[in-house]
Amino acid sequence: MLSVMAATSLALSLLVAPEAPSAADVVPPGKITVDVVTVNGSGCPAGTAAVAVADDNTAFTVTYSDYTAQAGSGSAPTDFRKNCQLNLRVHYPQGFTYGIAKADYRGFAHLPRGAKGMQRASYYFSGQSSTGTSTHNIAGPKTDNWQFTDTTDVAEIVFAPCGAVRHLNVNTEVRAFTNSSNQAAFVSMDSTDGSVNTRYQFAWKRC
User: Fold this and answer.
1) Which of 17, 28, 118, 193 would staple 175 via disulfide (CB 3.0–4.6 Å)?
2) Which of 72-86, 104-118, 158-172, 185-199 has the lowest mean pLDDT?
3) Which residues contact 143 (CB under 8 A, 6 or more apart)?
4) Which keywords are on file for this protein (predicted)?
């Protein structure tokens, strides 16, 4: 009986395909670095955006120190919208390529009743079409932190072409709106102490 059961178990195991490794199982060795090639936008004046790579090569973070959109009392007409475009060069070992699997956006909002805010983001490789734009609305009244997460299905992750140097473009935007010129409203994605940042999770694969 035991031999029959063992044979049956072996037959069943042969019928089940081994699980494909996930993107998290493929991580290049060594240290990944990210260089900021260009920075443009009202939300990231020179010297106010910093990039750091996680020690395990699974993600990188962008920290802003002057990224706030504001409307209403004390603000200029153009202050309601702030944006930033980062052009990044990711250095990694040959034989690998990467895409962005998930992005976490964080910040703080002060929105009185009747005010509202918005956060928008997209990213793409130079020479390729955009991966799509995500838009998140923030309703007042709110005086608190906010966080949004954009996740891409594994089958839909756009990878940089193998063997080609393609810079990663990261575009973000925040807006603040208010119906009253007597009340101040703002949406911020900045941090003076590095505690608030935007986190992009790599998806790695072998070429």
Assistant:
1) 118
2) 185-199
3) 109, 110, 111
4) Signal
Give 95-144 pLDDT, tens digit per residue.
999 999 999 999 999 999 999 999 999 999 998 876 778 999 999 999 99
The alpha carbon torsion through 143, 60, 41, 140 (nearest 10 deg) reads -20
Six token digits for residue 58: 């699974």
Instruction: State the Cα–Cα distance between residues 138 and 113, nearest whole angstrom.
Output: 12
- Give me the CATH code for the 33-206 domain, please: 2.60.120
Contact, 27 vs 95, CB < 8 A?
A: no
Which amino acid type is present at position 122?
A: S
pLDDT value of position 130: 65
Q: How far apart are CA 5 and CA 9, in angstroms?
A: 6
Q: Is the pLDDT of residue 10 over 50?
A: no
For residue 135, give the H/E element and its range: strand 133-139
Domain ranges of the chain: 33-206
Per-residue confidence (pLDDT) for residue 2, from 0 to 100:
33
Enter the pTM of the model. 0.84
Nearest to 24 by CA among 185, 153, 205: 205
Q: Which of 81, 96, 131, 112 is nearest to 207 (CA)?
A: 96
Residues with Cβ < 8 Å from 21, sequence gap 6 or more?
Answer: none
Distance CA 10, CA 49 (A): 56
> What is the C-alpha to C-alpha distance for residues 188 and 65, in angstroms, rounded to an integer?
10
